[in-house]
Amino acid sequence: MNIHEYQAKALLRRFGAPVPSGAAILSASDADAAIASVTGPVWVVKSQIHAGGRGKGKFVEAEAGELGGVRLARSAEEAKSFVQQMFGRTLVTKQTGPAGKQVNRLYVEEGSAIEKEFYLSALVDRTTGGVAFVASTEGGMDIEEVAASHPEKIHTIAIDPATGVMPHHGRTLAKALGLTGDLAKQAEKLSATLYEAFVATDMSMLEINPLIVTEDGQLRCLDAKVSFDSNALYRHPELAELRDLTEEDEKEIEASKYDLAYIALDGTIGCMVNGAGLAMATLDIIKLYGEEPANFLDVGGGASEEKVTAAFKIITADPQVKGILVNIFGGIMKCDVIANGVIAAVKAVGLQVPLVVRLEGTNVEEGKRIIAESGLDVLPADDLDDAAQKIVAAVRGRN
Q: CA-CA distance, 224 to 205, in Å (whole number)?
C-alpha cells in the first residue's frame, strides 16, 4: 500500500526524522489556514499523487507559463494562487501515463536553502533476507538513470536483522555520501531513525529523494515516498486508514476485497492463473507470441468458487480485454473448482471475447468434463504453449 508524501513525512516526523514543517490541503477551503501555518519567506506547494516526476509534470490544458506539479512561492498570496491553479486539475508525469492523475490533495511546506542533494532509500533486500539502505550522491535524479550511467555512485548497505542498525552502518552511510564531522553524526542518527520506522511499521520501501544538506549544515528529508507490506496491515489499522482509494485502479480495489493478487496492465489478453510464478510465466509467453497481457491475476492456491467468479468478473470488466486465458495447475487448488467458477462467472456476466482454458493437476478430468458439458464456447488447451498460441490467434482473429 502506498501513501502520500505528506502522510509519509508525518510518519517519519513521529519517529524523529528531520522533516520540514508543512500542512496538507485536502479541500480548497483548507488553503488559507494551511499556508498561514507555514513560516515563509518561501512556500513550496506540492501536488499529492501516487507518482513520481511531479516537478516536471504538466497539467492537462495548462495555460502558457504554468509550472509543474511542485511550485515555489515567494509570498503567501502566490502560494494561494498556485493552490487554485493546481487543485482538482489532472497532472501528467512520466509515471502516470498519458491519462494523468487528478490532484485531490496538496501539501504546502516551508522552503529549504539547499546546499547539497543526496539519494537515500531503505528496502527489503531479498538477497540477504534483511533491510538494506541504498545511497547515492546523485540526489534529485531517478535512481534508475544513475544505475545505468554511474553505477559506481550507488552504494548498498545491508543490515543484519539480528542486530539491526549499528553505529558502523551510519559511518558507512556517511562515507558513501561524503559527509564528515557533525553531518556524519547526523547521518548515523538518521540511519537508526529510518530503520526503526521501517521495521516498526512493516514498510516494504522508503525513499527519500532528495535528502538534503541545508546551508546551515543540517540534514533534511525533503521528499518521502513510502510503501507498506499489505500483508502486514492487519497489525497496523491506523496505517490502513491512510489508504487513498482515489489513487488506485477500481479493478484492483475490487480484487483486494476477495484477497486476489491483481495488477492492471496495458495489454489485451486477460489472465487468470493460480500461483505467482505460473502467472509470470503466462505473461511472458503471451509476450513471446507477440501480444500483451491486460493484467496479472493470481487467484491463489486455495481459492473458492466465489473467488474464481469474482476474478473472472474483474477481468471481463476491463474494456481493453479482447481475450481471456485461464491457466490453472491444480495442486491445493482443484481444477473442478476453477471450472465451476468460470462457468458461474460466464453465466453471470456473459462471454463477449474468446476464452481459452488450460487445466492440469488435481481433479483435471472432472474440470475438463465440466467445461466440455457446459455448452460454453471455450477453447481447451493441452499445455501452456498451446494455450498461449490459441488465445493470441483468437485475439488477432477478432482484430
A: 10
54 annotated binding-site participant? yes
> Known catalytic residue: 119?
yes
Which structural domain range is residue 259 located in?
249-398
Tell me if 149 is assigned to some domain: yes
Q: How confident is the model at residue 301 (pLDDT cuts 50, 70, 90)?
A: low
Given a cut of 80, is residue 331 above it in pLDDT?
no
Decide if pLDDT at 155 tops 80: yes
User: Can you give the CATH number for the domain in which 203 is found?
Assistant: 3.30.470.20
One domain, residues 225 and 359 = no
| Residue 373 assigned to a binding site | no
The phi-psi region of residue 375 (left if phi > 0; otherwise alpha if psi is between -120 and 50; otherwise beta) is left
Active site residue 6: no
Catalytic: which of 138, 188, 207, 291?
207
271 lies in some domain: yes
The answer on 301 and 383 residing in a single domain is yes
Q: Which residue is catalytic, options 6, 107, 119, 258?
A: 119
pLDDT for 362 equals 85
Within this chain, do residues 216 and 313 fall inside the same structural domain, yes or no?
no
Is 209 annotated in a binding site? The answer is yes
Total structural domains within the chain: 3
Q: Which of the four pLDDT bands, split at 50, 70 and 90, describes residue 302?
A: low
**CATH code of the domain covering residue 283:** 3.40.50.261
What is the C-alpha R_g of the chain?
25
Is 390 annotated as a binding-site member? no
For residue 332, say whether it is annotated as part of any ligand binding site: yes
Label residues 326-352 b or e (16+ Cβ within 10 Å = b): bbbbbeebbbbbbbbbbbbbbeeeebe
**pLDDT score of 65 more than 80:** no
